[in-house]
Amino acid sequence: MNSHLLDEVEQVLDARVRPTIHAHGGYVEVDRLTEDGVLHIRLLGACAGCPGTDYSMKYLVSEEVVGAVEGVTEVRLVQSVSDDLIFQALRLMRGAADRNATRSAPWSADRRPASVQS
């Protein structure tokens, strides 16, 4: 696709979309722009998997980009598990595992059965 069209898309995203998305802890990444004018994007950071993603797509990203960039006919969200979301999930699971291990470990001094305490 035309690099000039992608430049226009990036300018609109920078000026009208990204500040709002960033304010909520997320960011927008262009995945691709097809020959028929369909822009594919990813919403990442706090936006990955957020229940408000559909609203953000329809009322923020799509309206702004389609309305401002002639040649973009539609905006679609790429639904895949991002590296960022995987990292967040792993961090949460590790934290939960660490908390559970500390609370229920049979070897922790405050939780040892009376028969093994010295």
List the helices and strands and how they pair.
Layout: H1 3-23, E1 26-33, E2 38-45, H2 53-68, E3 74-77, H3 83-104
Parallel strand pairs: 2-3
Antiparallel strand pairs: 1-2
Give an overview in words.
With 118 residues, the protein is α+β, with helices and mostly antiparallel strands. The chain has one domain (3-102): GMP Synthetase, Chain A, domain 3 (2-Layer Sandwich), CATH 3.30.300.130. It is 50% helix and 17% strand. It has 3 helices and 3 strands. The protein has a 3-stranded mixed beta sheet with strand order 1-2-3, covered by helices on one side. Strand 2, helix 2 (53-68) and strand 3 form a beta-alpha-beta unit. The chain is elongated, with a radius of gyration of 22 Å.
